[in-house]
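Input sequence (214 aa), recorded before submission:
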Amino acid sequence: MSYRSLLHDAEVRFTIKKSVFIGYARRVQTVEEAETALEEIKTAHPTATHHCSAYILGENGIRQKAEDDGEPQGTAGLPMLAVLQREDVDDVLIVAVRYFGGVKLGASGLVRAYTKVCTDALQAASPVFYSPFREVTIRYAYPVQGKCDYALRNLRERSREYGEKVTVCYWLPEEEIDKIQSTLLNLTSGQIDWRVGEKFSFPTDAIGRPVERK
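Predicted structure, token format:
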């Protein structure tokens, strides 16, 4: 099942009425990763007035949390969480660091500021869709190499070895594995060895091809 998350980490910064806001977007996949990232950011800004945060984790956003960290209740964490929910992203942590500049923003001003922090950080992190892939190892004899290579030409090859047979390793889209295996078996009259390994999720482009994270 595909889901939307961040292509890369990002940091944004702006000033409102002398208060400096710094937003961090991180792709995290567990509560432990989120807490570790939050502590790292707090350590990097020990004199900041607030370190507010929000995250959504897991399939269908099963784990969600918002933290105001001393700001008036509901003016920081919840507005950021609302942005993440609206943008339909998973496995995302947003941390908003604030250095108070001496001018109060009021409740509505704080909501606007923290909404902007989250929106800007999220946009800078380039959300993309992640799709499930499987590591698949295929072995075939040299006489059918051309047929196999042509059938697999648009897929993500990880490695290739030449020995008694050709051994190739690919990341294959999970939903297409059965179709690809059937195609190769038909092309080679069953002359392939096929092993399915671990599952991973990769960011993909508009037509489902893996793209590199920055």
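Checked by second reader. The mean pLDDT is 92.
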